[in-house]
Amino acid sequence: MSTPPEGPDFSLADVAREGLIERPGAEPVPHDGTGRVDLSFTVHGRAEDGAELPPAERGVRVPPGVTVFDAASWNGIAIDSTCGGHGTCHKCKVRISPQADVPVTRHDRRTFTDAQLGDGWRLGCLVNATRDLAVEVPPLTTRPKAATVGIGRQVILRPALQKRYVELAEATLSDQRTDLVRLTDAIDDLELKADVHVLRRLSSVLRQSDFKVTAVIVDEDLIDVEPGDTTGARYAIAFDLGTTTVVGTLLDVGTGTPVAVTSMLNAQQPFGGDVITRISATMMDDQALGRLQQAAAATLAQLAAQVCREGGVDPQHVYEVAVAGNATMTALALGIDPEPLGVAPFVMSAAQPPSVLASEIGLSLHPRARAFFFPALGAYVGGDIVAGMLATGMDRDKRTRLFIDVGTNCEIVLSDGEKILSTAAPAGPAFEGGAIRCGMRAADGAIEVIKVDATASGDAPAVTLGVIGDVEPKGLCGSGLVDAVAELVRVGMLDATGRLVTEEAAKEVAPALADRLAMVGEERVFVLHRPTPDAEPAECVYLSQRDVRELQFAKAAISTGWSLLLEELGLEHRDVQQVLLAGSFGSYLSPASAVRIGLVPKLPVLRIVAAGNVAGEGAKMALLSVRERAGALALLEEVTYVELSDRPDFNEAFVDQLSFKA
Amino acid sequence: MSTPPEGPDFSLADVAREGLIERPGAEPVPHDGTGRVDLSFTVHGRAEDGAELPPAERGVRVPPGVTVFDAASWNGIAIDSTCGGHGTCHKCKVRISPQADVPVTRHDRRTFTDAQLGDGWRLGCLVNATRDLAVEVPPLTTRPKAATVGIGRQVILRPALQKRYVELAEATLSDQRTDLVRLTDAIDDLELKADVHVLRRLSSVLRQSDFKVTAVIVDEDLIDVEPGDTTGARYAIAFDLGTTTVVGTLLDVGTGTPVAVTSMLNAQQPFGGDVITRISATMMDDQALGRLQQAAAATLAQLAAQVCREGGVDPQHVYEVAVAGNATMTALALGIDPEPLGVAPFVMSAAQPPSVLASEIGLSLHPRARAFFFPALGAYVGGDIVAGMLATGMDRDKRTRLFIDVGTNCEIVLSDGEKILSTAAPAGPAFEGGAIRCGMRAADGAIEVIKVDATASGDAPAVTLGVIGDVEPKGLCGSGLVDAVAELVRVGMLDATGRLVTEEAAKEVAPALADRLAMVGEERVFVLHRPTPDAEPAECVYLSQRDVRELQFAKAAISTGWSLLLEELGLEHRDVQQVLLAGSFGSYLSPASAVRIGLVPKLPVLRIVAAGNVAGEGAKMALLSVRERAGALALLEEVTYVELSDRPDFNEAFVDQLSFKA
């Protein structure tokens, strides 16, 4: 199979009647907000000449409830769409299996015949992934004028990077226009500026190619003139420059299609796991800033080389990059002294980093390729969050929405559809695993999902673990930590103050779990996994009392942040229509556990949405649309930054948020 | 003496009555338009603390008729003035000696007492130098708001380079403005743009200097932030980048004062003496463009280092340079392929070269110093001519004026006060000395002035030679060539067709010169200088028949150029109110000889004015005033370029101009 089926007619009138924003499908299948689902994509492609390519297989693991379309989109798998995943364009046709419990919406009925529906065809944006699924994606149809990125954002393609092929008349004694004017006269819808590097080549390229050339333009800068017609090769790279992980996505900006995606650990890791330790390094050692800058450059360069290799793209055909990073990562990548970011009163050198050449941040792409860095709202609400706001449409959606990027520094944005507030909460290292006894990064062997049955008996397991890579558990990652605490609170093994109950109390409230209470050194622990039946507690994977305290402090900082923002806008928990959990960590939290421990407002789990790598999505949007990029800059004016450390009511609110209230 | 005398009162009403443009002095002493005058300047200065400095001595050699003020100004000697040398501000006080035949104008009477006049005090702009003079220049008075440059141009100081000293409030938790905003808020009359290099230093400079810093601004680019108050140190360098000679002038843009001037041969000389041979070099050898670019860079760098050393200025305090060069010199300095300039249809890459860093043209000044290159009107009416037009006010003066830059390529501009036309005439190498048997550059030993007495007898010399450096004559430079031909035409030794007359005819028309006719090889020559009484003709300095032909062709090309321009505007010779002879060669032509051979229209010699190094003056103006710089760019729109090689009537006009008509 490779061609999506032709279904019943679809008219624009339907779109108009149903509106473009609200997803009009049947109610999604409810899910309980816990666990993970695995999606196996089989992606069909077509070569330039129309010939079918061998299908590519990709496995993707997401929290339940994410739509198939979003899951694909966040992972760089392109599916046809012109409406941005709102259920109206009827283009995102996929074949689902098993399809037994995937509901058929009225949009599916309009799009597909009964036979096709029976064969598993559905609109990908209307399928909520509530269990493991196999998904077949047909080849993309015609070159789109728009691409889908971010959280259901449909971006009309108008990239800053443009290529224009022109055939010019040769100069004569009666037409002595300069080479540059001859070229710009032919591209008269733009006010092109040429730098000296283009002028150095211009006359010889024009004459060697019989005045048939392709102008390479970024914004209104003419960055190169290439012989002949090279309009087909126009690429850009979107970087999510995280403190821990850096993700690079190679994009064909002509079609909006992601060509290759890859990620790696930030090579700055040896200088410290979080931004503060890296800033400290620059304060203690004059050479550190230069070395951190080089480490950032090396990371970006390696990712760029890798996505170009994977995508079979000549790095010389990459003309622009966009970088979304927090204020410290941005400063370090640009070689800007980060010290004032690390000490009160937390001041940035500039909110909008200047445009630089990609070569200035260590990239070996086209020599005049440009690098765009996202602007920051504050020292702790950086370009990654601005990119995330762009990707989630925080400035466009009229609903009341809360955006939380969970991490060592947690950024929170609240919009009521009119005003947008942002703040930063210092959550500490709990989620990164560093301060947790058995903590580890979300890598193979990390427990990421935990379910507890307090009254299990016989063969039924009292504790069920979801482990990344399905291997022997080695430790606990952030989402596992949250699950563990949430489950133990739920069954009463942890009281409202966060204390592990006594063994006596445990036997009463959770008889199947009581024997898991143990001591490691002076500390009480709850054993999650015993490698061997007679292993010592210290050899096990466990949750310690101190771990609970770490998480308590983190969640209190975060919930104090959004509580005070809600207060600022006069809103209650229930007014929040959607909570977006963002970032490489936040996206993998169990919504149910997040609600349980009070990390997010007490809301139905269906309102808690994993948003994926929104910084990377925002970076892609900035590359695909100058309008979206302008929107990112406009956010600097639209968003009010609330400094929490300055507020007299912060401490009181914080203490109030420490407990695990029911 | 050091303080200029206080004279009679002077009121603004006088200025208003007399107007600002017309020079209202007494008729200047008539001169015959031949020879040279030597001016010996004694320049008094004052240190920062007001203490008098030891006077500096400077010798200057100019064609007769140039004013003392202009002669000083063109040679980088600053004299007080606010009116630009128009005789109205009464500030340019100098003491002349001998003063016997220097007339006293009514402006002098209003400025000085009788005793002062008797002591030699005059207004420098009203003294036409018609003989050798000693000139004493008092120290400059207060820092001016304007400077005098070019040909009587008064430039209000508004340099692109600005320094602003600011004392900023330190950041607090309730004032977290970024460092950049904090700075730009304090300089709110400009829309400053900061590049990444400034941002890299900004936070540490602010904090190390207690937020008391000097912003360094070029146009609206913030190029640096320096600790403390450095507003006193703001320098720029104006370059006249000639094919043969390159001149650098270090300017204090805060006062408009030239600090040091120096010149050297263009290090591109080994690639050929003129632009065509250098362009050819790049066509025959792939490496040549790079080497020519390096040679230009080395020349500019050496001059920059020298003027900084002479002026006692730290090169780090030079933040901008302006370069006026022809289209080929400009292209080579920027590394732009010049080939299309050298072959029909003679096309430039761009009329306005892009702004580049000074470091990109090889200069080691402030690392972010900018380089401005003058735009060109055509492949053969380059940035040097645009700068010259600016310096001579070709676009502002309402008189009908003809501007001629004499050289291998001769540029001609004609303005009737409304329209401005320009063209280029290929004069060939006659003026540079290369194609002339005894030709040489205008260096020590070159005959630059020649007077002939056809009927001299006894001890009276038949031929009087002016030799540069007052040494034994070694050859003939361009102005000497023109003098020689003009004088021989005048006395009848050359007929109207340019042939040396027969010995018989010579004995009749010029008995004292007849014995100077001789043969060198197959060629008839006229001996100008015999090193020894019995020297062979070949050992002498002589003018050959072929030399005369070379000059004939050159003058025919030039006069065809301005003749056709006059025709275009429907003007006669007599309508031309001023002829400006520009460039390092043109400025030293004898006006009388230029008229005699028909190089310029038949006009009274007083209308023929040596304009000096107008390209360099234009470059200075561009550094001192953004308004003037905008004026240079506006010339691109205002001036109509006339391509001569395209005109059907060119050949006929050329033949017509070959003869030496009376």
Q: Explain this structure to me?
A:
- Chain A is of the alpha/beta class and 662 residues long.
- Chain A has five domains: 12-142, Roll (Ubiquitin-like (UB roll)), CATH 3.10.20.30; 161-227, Ubiquitin-like (UB roll) (Roll), CATH 3.10.20.880; 235-383, Nucleotidyltransferase, domain 5; 396-429 and 551-657, ATPase, nucleotide binding domain (Nucleotidyltransferase, domain 5, 2-Layer Sandwich), CATH 3.30.420.40; 431-548, no CATH class.
- In chain A, 29% of the residues lie in helices and 25% in strands.
- Chain A is built from 19 helices and 29 strands.
- Chain A has a six-stranded mixed β-sheet, sandwiched between helices.
- In chain A, α12 packs across α16 and α17 packs across α18.
- The longest helix of chain A is centred in the middle third of the chain and has 24 residues, at 288-311.
- Chain A is globular and about 100 Å long.
- Chains A and B meet through α5, β9 and α6 of A and α5, β9 and α6 of B.
Using the coordinates above, name the CATH class of the largest domain in chain A.
Answer: Alpha Beta
Q: How would you describe the shape of chain A?
A: globular
- CATH topology name of the largest domain in chain A: Nucleotidyltransferase, domain 5
Going across the major beta sheet of chain A, what is the strand order? 14-13-12-15-17-16
Oligomer: homodimer
Quick one: CATH superfamily of the largest domain in chain A?
A: Domain of unknown function (DUF4445)
In percent, how much strand structure appears in the residues of chain A?
A: 15-25%
Mean pLDDT of chain A: 88
Number of domains of chain A: 5
Question: Given the helix and strand composition of chain A, which structural class is it?
Answer: alpha/beta
How many extended strands of chain A? Answer: 29
Domain 2Fe-2S ferredoxin-type (chains A, B): 37-141
Pfam family, one (chains A, B): Raco_middle
InterPro entries (chains A, B): 2Fe-2S_ferredoxin-like_sf (IPR036010), 2Fe-2S_ferredoxin-type (IPR001041), ATPase_NBD (IPR043129), Beta-grasp_dom_sf (IPR012675), Corrinoid_activation_enz (IPR052911), Raco-like_middle (IPR041414), Raco-like_middle_sf (IPR042259), RACo_C (IPR027980)
GO molecular function (chains A, B): iron-sulfur cluster binding
